[in-house]
Amino acid sequence: MALASAVNLAIMPPEPKVINIAYASPKSTLASSALVVSVIPDTPEKSLALNEKRGDEGKDEEGDGSTSGGIVGLENDNVAGIKGLIKQYFPKEPLMVKIADCESSLIQSAKNKKSSAKGILQIIDGTWEFFKCEGDVLNAKDNLKCGVKILEGQGLSAWQESFSCWKNF
To answer: What global pTM score does this model have?
Structure first.
C-alpha cells in the first residue's frame, strides 16, 4: 500500500514561518522536517499545496514531488524551494531544473573557481552584461530572471558546458 501525505500552507504574512512536514514512505518510518519559508515581497499572496505520493505516482518530471504552486523564498538553499522557483520562471522548460542542478547543485551562492560563472544557473559576467541583467547574480530570483533572457536569446546552448550531465534527462 502506498502511503501519501499532503501539506497545505497558506503563505500570507511576509514574515518567515516554520512549517513542520510529516511524511511516511514504505521504506522508512514516520519522519519529519522543518522548513523556514518566506514570501518574496513583490509576489502576490498564494496558497501552496504540496501533494506527494511515494512510489512512481505523484512525482513531477524530476521525480522529486517539488511544486511550482507559487513563488516562495526558502532559506538556506532548500532544494525543493529552489526547484519550485525554477519551475515558476521556466514553466515550459522543465529541463531547466536539471540544468540548474548540474550547474550549481541548486545552490544560489555557487561560484565557479575556474571562471566568472555564478549562481544557480552559473551565469558568467559577460553573459550577465550582454543580456543587461539586473540585480545580484547570487540572488536566486535575479539569476533566474537573467536565465529567462538567456534561454530566449541563446537557447539551451548557453549551458553546453554541463550538457553531459543533463543530456539524458
So the answer is: 0.57
